[in-house]
């Protein structure tokens, strides 16, 4: 079991962020006898997944919807599948766009390297003649 500060450290988050996720019903921590939040390994794994969704630019509204589906139970499996498939399609479009941009940058960089090498080669030839 983890306290809120321990979990925040493990996830490299602030305790404020964990409280925000709780308010938004993305995570529901357990409470100890003193009423303090306590988190299990399942909470840790869930939040690691949530952070990956966030890193992959899933909007918080979609993350909340997914979390709600999970809380509702197995009868929402198809809705969860659809939500994740839609986001995966978005990610794949982003990857294609980034790959195209990378190819353009690669060509531009190669062009600059060639110009610099030609300039340096011409300078060396000029120096050799003098």
TrEMBL record:
Gene3D superfamilies, per the entry: 1.10.1660.10
Keywords: DNA-binding
CDD domains listed in its UniProt record: HTH_YyaN
Pfam families in the cross-refs: MerR_1
Ranges of residues in domain HTH merR-type: 1-69
Record's protein name: MerR family transcriptional regulator
Organism: Paenibacillus baimaensis
Biological classification of the source: Bacteria, Bacillati, Bacillota, Bacilli, Bacillales
């Amino acid at each position: 079991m983890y306290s809120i500060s321990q979990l925040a450290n493990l996830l490299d988050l602030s305790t404020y962020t964990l409280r925000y996720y709780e308010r938004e019903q993305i995570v529901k921590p357990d409470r100890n006898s003193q009423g303090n939040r306590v988190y299990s390994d399942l909470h840790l794994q869930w939040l690691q997944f949530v952070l990956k969704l966030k890193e992959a630019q899933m909007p918080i509204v979609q993350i909340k919807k997914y979390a709600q589906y999970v809380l509702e139970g197995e009868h929402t499996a198809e809705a969860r599948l659809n939500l994740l498939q839609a986001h995966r399609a978005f990610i794949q479009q982003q990857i294609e766009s980034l790959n195209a941009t990378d190819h353009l940058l690669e060509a531009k960089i190669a062009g600059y390297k060639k110009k610099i090498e030609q300039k340096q080669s011409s300078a060396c030839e000029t120096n050799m003649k003098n």
